[in-house]
Amino acid sequence: MKPSLRTAVTAAVTTALVAAGLSTPSPATAAPKAAIVAKYDYTAQVSDVVVHSPSMNRDIPVTVLSPKNKTKPAGVLYLLNGAGGGEDAANWLNKSDVVKFFAKKNVYVVIPMKGAFSYYTDWVRRDPVLGVNKWSTFLGKELPGVINKAYKTNGKNAIAGISSSATSVLNLAIQHKGLYKAVSAYSGCASTSSEMGKAYIKLVVETRGGAKVSNMWGPTNGPGWIKNDPVAHAAGLRGLAVYLSAATGLPGQYDSTRYVPKPAVLADQIILGGGIEAATRICTEDLANKLASLRIPATVDRPATGTHSWRYWQDQLHKSWPQMARKIGA
Fold first, then answer.
1. Where is the signal peptide (predicted)?
2. Interval 270-285: pLDDT, tens
3. Domains and CATH numbers, the chain
């Protein structure tokens, strides 16, 4: 289901619930607890739910992929989109085979469809452009309880993300100890307090998002950046099944006209995507080395070629899935 149609249907469902007195759009009377305020089933497998977040006082659309057998308890994979937060066309549903891939697997896949340029973290103050962002609170404390109540889950969770959200999933795993059994980070930059990490985050939040990074974690030379640096807090990943991946940025099998027929788009993927991927490889090695020094096991995949693009991330999801599946009973 395309995002535009899904958004329209979700809005219609929400309006119907409001009319029936089951929900309210008024911030003054918003639900005091996280709860599903709207739901629409597209197929037996794919549903959109709208979850109210008390910490942000707004409703968040979430796509849920259900297992074929809903009578048997299943684990949950929280799958985060990249910088666009699922609000643009560049998301897991549009750019990968997740629906088909998980169709016969015993797992619930939960994909938030909001959070553009937020790094899925708790911001220290409201941003004039992006508003209030308390994504760590929402994803770590509010949403899991709602999902566990609405679906027949087994209490075991994994989390995975790409690019900017590859940093987010590591921080979420560290900050919400015990919530996840496994974490997978594809093409991310975990060393957020390094100069490269800061530059990467500014590119996402300020250049692309139009917001201010100082509203996210405070001054770039302040403690907030170290507090949210997975490399600095890598010890918090002990006990989890950790999967990291990043390629070299050199053109690979998906960087051709066979997969990207438009020359301008292909050139952008090779030049810009290649440069970004090369940078994330350096960041990934920083975290891998830190984990090794702490004697924390991690699976690290280092493809010899590949750019910062979706087909490579789809491959990484497939490759990391068996490790996550074992941890969540899928």
1. 1-30
2. 999 999 999 999 999 9
3. 3-328 (3.40.50.1820)
